[in-house]
Design brief:
Blueprint lengths: L2 E5 L4 H15 L4 E7 L15 H16 L3 E7 L29 H12 L3 E4 L9 H17 L4 E5 L17 E4 L2 H12 L5 H10 L6 E6 L17
Parallel strand pairs: 1-2, 1-4, 2-3, 4-5
Antiparallel strand pairs: 5-7, 6-7
Helix pairs in contact: 1-5, 2-5, 3-4
């Protein structure tokens, strides 16, 4: 496999790497996505009962995956950890009632090790050490992916989501971009369609568009261990 994205929640795949997944699939590269939870602690927006949110978001993700043209897709059922903050009284899924999350399941390292051995990814995208927003599931996923990649003994390029400039409260653990990809219009439009499939998380989508609109058509990553000029493709043969 050429490129594998590993994230904890439905919608984590599309904000930072949606356009890249679309383009690489169009160029004939083999892409994959592993999502560790069904996101049952997220918002419902009244679109489903709290106890149905996990299954509802799983269907949203499947529709997004089709638009992203992901070749290999896995959705696991580890618990969705409670986010750091929420608005009082907002409609949430039943998973919000418990604090348990990805970080409580270190066996994920062995799961990922097995999947890496089977899928043989040349490159992996996941969250940076700060998890972008310090969500405990994001941070734990970063740690588990790094551990599994090291244990695998494979030569895997590890890419982390890397916004050009972090918010001050997330500066610790931020890594600067080493690879910057500008999306053409057709990839951007498909990416927006994929984002729109996550209907229950529409407030998160709109918040991203409002605060980080400059990042919709620009996807930026940090390659672990890389020192050199900014590159534009994650794999040297991409687009050739």
């Amino acid at each position: 496999m050429d490129l594998l994205v590993v994230v904890p929640h439905p919608d984590d795949e599309v904000f930072g790497a949606g356009g890249t997944l679309i383009q690489y699939a169009d160029w004939g590269l083999e892409t994959g996505l592993i999502t560790l939870t069904k996101g049952e602690a997220g918002r419902t927006l009244g679109l489903c009962a709290p106890e149905r949110l996990g299954d509802f978001r799983a269907e949203e993700l499947k529709r997004a995956v089709d638009i992203l043209k992901v070749g290999h897709f896995e959705l696991h059922d580890f618990p969705n950890g409670r986010p750091n903050s929420s608005l009082e009284g907002e409609a949430r899924g039943h998973g919000f009632a418990t604090p348990n999350g990805v970080a409580d399941h270190p066996e994920i390292v062995d799961l990922l090790l097995w999947r890496f051995e089977v899928l043989r990814p040349r490159a992996i995208i996941t969250f940076a050490p700060n998890g972008s927003n310090r969500h405990p599931d994001h941070v734990a996923t970063h740690q588990f992916v790094v551990q599994a990649a090291r244990k695998s003994g494979q030569k895997i390029k590890l890419f982390f989501y890397a916004p050009p400039q972090p918010l001050p409260e997330y500066l610790e653990g931020w890594l600067p971009p080493t690879h910057v990809r500008q999306l053409p219009m057709d990839a951007l439009l498909q990416k927006l369609r994929a984002m729109a499939q996550h209907r229950t998380q529409a407030l998160s989508v709109l918040n991203f568009m409002d605060r980080f609109s400059h990042r919709l058509a620009s996807e930026t990553f940090h390659l672990a261990g890389y020192e050199g000029p900014v590159q534009h493709e994650l794999l040297w043969y991409a687009g050739r």
